[in-house]
Design a protein that fits this description.
Elements lengths: L2 E2 L1 H4 L18 E7 L6 H4 L10 E6 L6 H8 L4 E5 L4 H11 L4 E4 L11 H9 L4 E5 L6 E2 L4 H18 L11 E4 L3 H4 L8 H11 L4 E5 L1 E2 L11 H17 L12 E4 L9 H5 L2
Parallel strand pairs: 2-3, 2-5, 3-4, 6-9, 7-10
Antiparallel strand pairs: 1-11, 4-11, 5-8, 6-8
Helix pairs in contact: 6-9, 8-9
Length: 278
């Protein structure tokens, strides 16, 4: 395998100097963490709105199947980042560091988040939001995947956040979000696990950012078994909520996560998946 230096891929312009472009000129980066998702990617990639995107990045967490090969077949121009660490939080942090876009979109690889909804998230950002937050429980949203236990847990944790942070979120533990590049220093992801969405949501609240909830319909994972563990991950989420509220320390820059980027397999960036879907 050939790799390029991760430091060369990190966007050089600072958030302080960033000017938000208008829609025709905005570069949109989609970040997709993957771990053994080869069977799911053919169902995800054809639904990406490529005409709105600048780049698609998968952050692979040590897959043992053909995830990378399938991704490159579906979209030869894809960027492939290999995380040295483990966990969804670490994978997203790697993707955020590697992204070159003006807008960053978080998307799951298992088919549960619908790529066709990306324009809805972009609409909110271009209407003035700093952070477009997907919600399964806002009017127009829904889920065909969430279990009763997860629903109760999400409702409880969401209520705790609204009480402690003065927010009016309708959903807390959902990973479909989009935000402007200059928001990154205020989020500064420094956790490894599934608590990452909660960490981001409470930090945007603490920073006083403009948040717009986007109704989203969560689908079932197409193939494979979810890596989420409701009790274990729910406790990690609760600890994150309390720590962020009562720690008192400001969000500071953390060491960048370690990752490597593979050289692109082909110069042709036209997505084969778009051709297959027609």
């Amino acid at each position: 395998m050939k790799f390029s230096s991760s430091s060369a891929q990190v966007r050089s312009s600072s958030a302080d100097q960033f000017v938000r472009p208008t829609r025709p000129f905005a570069r949109v980066s989609v970040i997709i963490p993957t771990l053994n998702e080869a069977a799911n990617l053919p169902h995800v990639f054809p639904r990406l709105p490529y005409d709105e995107l600048f780049e698609v990045i998968i952050v692979d967490g040590h897959s043992t199947d053909d995830t990378i090969a399938v991704a490159r077949l579906l979209y030869p121009g894809i960027r492939v980042v290999l995380q040295d660490g483990v966990g969804k939080g670490d994978a997203l942090a790697c993707g955020f560091c590697a992204a070159r876009g003006d807008i960053i979109v978080m998307l799951d690889a298992d088919g549960s988040t619908d790529p066709a909804e990306i324009p809805d998230f972009l609409d909110r950002l271009f209407d003035g939001a700093d952070f477009a937050k997907g919600s399964r429980f806002a009017t127009g949203g829904g889920s065909v995947d969430i279990t009763p236990v997860r629903r109760v847990g999400n409702c409880f944790l969401n209520g705790v956040v609204n009480w402690l942070y003065g927010t009016s979120y309708t959903d807390l533990c959902y990973g479909y979000n989009a935000f402007w590049f200059d928001v990154l220093p205020k989020i500064n992801v420094n956790c490894a696990g599934f608590e990452v969405e909660t960490l981001m949501n409470v930090r945007v609240a603490k920073a006083g950012l403009v948040v717009s909830e986007v109704p989203s319909v969560e689908q079932k994972r197409i193939f494979g078994v979810s890596k989420l563990r409701p009790v274990r991950d729910g406790l990690r989420v609760l600890r994150t909520i309390l720590a962020e509220r009562f720690d008192g320390r400001p969000v500071t820059n953390c060491p960048k996560p370690k990752f490597r980027e593979m050289e692109r397999a082909a110069q042709d960036s036209r997505p084969l998946s778009a051709e297959l879907s027609t």
